[in-house]
Amino acid sequence: VAGVVPADLERGTPAAERRALQAAALGLPLLPTTTIGSFPQTPEIRRARAAHRTGSLDDAGYEAAMEAEVRAVVAAQEAAGVDVLVHGEPERDDMVRHFAARLDGFVTPLHGWVQSYGSRCVRPPVVVGDVSRPAPMTTRWTAYAQSLTAAPVKGMLTGPVTVLAWSFPRDDEPRSTTARQLALALRDEVADLEAGGARVVQVDEPGLRELLPLRAAGRAEYLAWAVDAFRLATAVAAPSTQVHTHMCYAEFGDVMAAIDALDADVISLEAARSRLEVLDELAAEGYDRGVGPGVWDIHSPRVPSVDEVADHLARALERLPADRLWANPDCGLKTRSVEEVAAGLASLVAGAARAREQLAG
Length: 361
What we know:
Blueprint: H1 15-26, H2 43-54, H3 59-80, H4 97-100, E1 104-107, E2 114-117, E3 120-122, E4 126-132, H5 139-146, E5 154-158, H6 160-165, H7 175-195, E6 200-204, H8 207-210, H9 219-234, E7 242-247, H10 256-261, E8 266-269, H11 277-285, E9 290-293, H12 306-317, H13 338-360
Parallel strand pairs: 5-6, 6-7, 7-8, 8-9
Antiparallel strand pairs: 1-4, 2-3
Helix pairs in contact: 2-3, 7-9, 12-13
GO molecular function, one term: zinc ion binding
Keywords: Metal-binding, Methyltransferase, Transferase, Zinc
InterPro entries: Met_Synth_C/arc, UROD/MetE-like_sf
């Protein structure tokens, strides 16, 4: 942490130049389609995880089961015609706990359940020491998914601020210090993903807004170290590597300047319910990078029609140029069924295709 210098927080190439390099490297169409990361946690996944935890399924059997799920997820995306794929995260029971279990400096309790919202409960990890990464955490699964397809597969990481926000922190050091330790661990992971062939890496930060102090007096200091942590984690990426981030349902007005300062190449945000208000807020901030306003509300079992997706994108195009707009769901697909996801992906891809046709006149 003491060795971090300001240059470590900079990509080194302006966003507009990165966009051109990434367009050449990825070869994506206008209005590219993608998903946020997770796919349904099926009964088969849960059974394999439980059997592995109790020892009735060995490591080889568990990995074979997860590979089968990754193959199914990649095949489903290819069948639908999605442009930038994900591996589906079948091996992850929780987007924070999964990483905490693979980082030194954390313990992951077997119990200690707390309510997140509604009937959803989680077991937050506990930070007990300095955080570091003893070994790569995600590269094996991203590389496996990429071996199955010629389409780009996103490396998927949970950001340093979110890991910290959804864990019990240390009380003997500032959160900003822990965030920087997490950022350095994730920086190594980004570098390893890139070295393994990943051309797109997504670092999710839904916790950025959640950790914002209630008192206005503390917000500037918090946002400064939170933004620095994200940038430290991601600035190691080459200019041709596209860095995405994702944020879930929240009031973003108070953190728009911070979102801009993250310097991510693409941000995906909830917009299916908010009627694209977030795009107006981004425009007011002068945000000039890629945006994926969610066109599919995944917190409902209802699947959007092709017309709805196309109309949503048409309204977004009134606010954004076509070369910066992405088509994606609001959030991960973990809680949806396989059937709902198949129908939703079909609508997403067909809706984006229709919007492209309308652009072409």
